[in-house]
Structures
1.
Amino acid sequence: MRIFFNLFIAHYKQFIRDKAALFFTFLFPILFILVFGWAFGDPSQSFDVGVVTQDTSDIAYAVVAALNEVEVLDDIEVGDFNTEMDLLRDGDLEAVIVIPEGFGDSLQMGQAASLDVHYDPSQTSTVQILLPLLEQVMDGIERGITGNIRLISLEEHIVQSRELKMIDYLVPGILGMSIMFSGIFACIPIIQQRQAQIIKRLGCTPLRRSSLVLSELAFRMILVLLTTALIVLVGRLAFGVEMVGNWGVLCGLCILGTLAFVSIGYVIAAFVRTEESAIPIINVINFPMMFLSGTFFPVSNMPGFIEPIVSAIPLTYLTDALRQTMVDSTPFHPMTTNVLVLTGWLVVCLLITIRFFRWD
Amino acid sequence: MSKKQQFVIEVRDLFKSYGPIKAVDGISFQVEKGEIFGMLGPNGAGKTTTVEIIEGLRKPDSGRVDVLGMDALKDVRSVKEHIGVQLQIPALFPTLNVQEIVSFFGGIYKTRVSSSEVIQMVSLEESSKVLVKNLSGGQQQRLSVALAFVNDPDIAFLDEPTTGLDPQARRALWDVIEGFRSRGKTIFLTTHYMDEAERLCDRVAVMDHGNIIALDSPSHMIEHHFRESAIQFRISNSPGSKVLSEIDGVSNLVSDEDEITLYTDNVPVTISGLLALASSRSSQLSDLFVRQATLEDVFLKLTGKRIRD
């Protein structure tokens, strides 16, 4: 225990003297939140939406009226299909909502009806905020007209208590990103110490290697939890992002996420001998993961060949789980799937590490 | 006292191969309590592998190693508790300071010498708050040696302890090593410096190609291999080794690039023969001097190499 404490102190002192590590652990995610939050998270940000009513029922008008009520839908253009679609193509609109003929009749007869939403995939950032929002709107209309029976469909249909803003999406994304960085960078001290023969030197003492690894891991966990607290705090103070979920679940997810990414870091340490070659490899892993998993922007509109990659990378699942917990966002995957995928990565990476890692 | 306790290290029939290379090819030797035992050999001779097996860093293919009466291949952690090690590369956490490193290493062991005593041992008191990465190479080296004594070990393994040190620091370190020995402790020294081995070691083992080719005290070793003196020189327009070795009195010749050493038991005869030969060929002799044979000559004779090769 005393040895563990000594190691812990050593990790701590090395960490606080490493300015780059300090920056990347604490300042970097905060800067991201502030920069992206101010760039995209402006609460007055609005969407221009075109509405095409091919239906003349009262309900159709009620839908248009309801859309007009929504604050962030700044400019609602009502027009014919071709005109609106041209505007969308020109980039003047973010989306076109078509109320098809017979929409009102179907609802009045108690049958299901759907709205068509056309949107530009390149505008994913705004559209992905818009779609859940539209669902909320339809939800409201539906409650007014048909009670609790769900008839109007717009893809998935989740009842949301909160209006999801870009910043709500962003804060858990940044947290996921910083967990990924902290985790994967766990390979650096190991590679450095192996390269500088520090591990060999410690091997000449009665110190157990497990103490070395576990103390480093414990220290990293504490860093991650501190980062989490900091990110949640900044999200709340700067942008009013409420953490609505259970703190225990959030901590659990952070720990599971850290373990999964640390194990990926260990795989790197198993195959890469020098720090100089590890850094570019880490970047090659981190940056695509960061963008493909939707840290900053949702990615459901990627070209088809990228989809399998997106659905394989662990950060996708970690950020989804974090979003569900922190801001109660629309799940892309059930929580159990998220947890299972992360656990799967952890187990597979540990097995690879055990098979290939060398201490010397 | 039983025989077992007189030897603090006993190595028997030690083998270790890396693929086709026999790094250690069946060696046996003992190290006595309270001696400074030197291990010499050219690079790749198997010294490092041997030492690392004894230290518990590597497993041999076969053989037996007892350290302080313990089976060093099984009770690895108990052995490590009672030995101190200095590796050739200092290998220290770069962002801890001297004081912190010493107390960190001290904290690993059950027995420990006080940090200030360890720092004082290698005169680093004034640098005790300096981060390792900001120490000079020599200071790092001294710190690294000091850490081998942090647990007051029974055996200290020192690998090239004085490399990179200025002459003064080197002598100071010799005093530390001899002071340690005077308390009945044992030193296992690996070195490239023949003068260091000659001055410090009670016995030296010379390793080459995985075997111990000589094991004796430096003075015995020199006497045994050389009753002769050495005449060392460079010569222009060299007549060649064969002609030189036929000069009267020459018993052996070693040439290392353009530096030639003749071993002779009759210095005046050989010198006049050499001078006559040089003047007959109008060859210029330079850097000529006569000296007693040293451990370096023994090493050269035994391995055919200078130790720095």
2.
Amino acid sequence: MSEALLSHEIPGGAAWSVLVRGGRELKLTATGAGANCSTLLFAAHHPVDRLNVPDTLKAQMSARIHAPMVLMSDRGTALCSVTGSSLDWHDALSGHSCDVHLEQFGPSSYSADRNAWRRSARAGLLSELRKHGRGPADLHACVNFFGKVATSGDAAGTLTFVPAHASAGDWVTLRAEMDVLVVLSTAPHPLDPRWDPAGVLAEVRPAPDPGPHDPSWTFRDESARALRAAREVLA
Amino acid sequence: MTGVVTVGSGLDPTVAVLDTTVADGDGFLATIPAGGSFRIVDLHGNQAVDTLFYDAADLDNRYSAMDTVREQGRAYLTAGSRLLSVNVDVLATITADTCGRHDTLGGACAQESNVVRYGEHTRHQHACRETFLRYGERVGIGARQLGHNINFFMNVPLTAEGGLTFADGLSAPGKYVEVRAERDLYVLISNCPQLNNPCNGWNPTPVRLLGWW
């Protein structure tokens, strides 16, 4: 594997953002069991275009995120392709954690806990968004990489959190299909009853050029059309 | 369908303060005061009604599909479902539902997502996202403010294997859903013009809106 252009380990319970150039691959690797990575995606050069989870799921007939699905934007363009993963299920139905999910763990503050203070994914995502001139209006349904909420075929559509779905070393690779802003939080999944956040290693490398048999291009007609649209956003 | 429970409403349409019909493919925006009840009637059956709610005092405190399904532990909406915001505030509660279940994971159609799903020939077909933006503009709801909506009367079954499909609706002529506003709300509706899948029974039709407050 080629040397990473960028390598950064995000501790558990923290937030981070990175601009990834189109044609490069972002690899996220869990450094501990039960990792969660609530991830937002934006088209870097468009004021509002961002990940649209419902469009991504319905176009590819899936209630989970898995390789080689294409992560699609509001404008029907591919932002990233999931080129590979050691896990076949990443949650996208649950959103990110909010302050209300931290109440069960008791009070926490910088003053009392210094940098081990507990902050929700929302607090972290907003903290990063503000650095890019964005704010609450830019929040959208995230992908919780390394998280799983099992679906069911029953009449209620019962959803069940699966604890510790990921182990240390589990990974996912995202190929940027245009320049993208990735904003992420490593706070625990909102349905995780424990506060034991694991870290995530982020690495960026050049991605191999997708050939005619690229799994994301050949996955479904819908995936290919979104990938084609990504190449046409700047004519 | 097994396990689907329906709940009727005692509210009388003849004393409603709001009573209007929204044509197929048209939209609607109104304020519902806290405590008010708002009913959507599927006049002809199998009509998807794409709906967003906003805290009228704070547009950023908008309906959130993912917060709603996570906190209720089920993917579908029905009577008793609390419709939550991105701040996990209860915006509204479904108080009556004679259909039985509604989707909130399928999102809205857009010209661009129609191209992805059905091909280039659908690019200039009318779509919900355009209606949302047109009707929302008056109160400051633009593209940044569009969250992921509810599709009343639409059926998007999940499978235990993590599959998701659009299926024929469970609705029928005259079925309705009613919500109670838990704070002052904007309701923004696109009466879906989609022609390319069964969400409108392949034939979009008008819906009736009723309000009591």
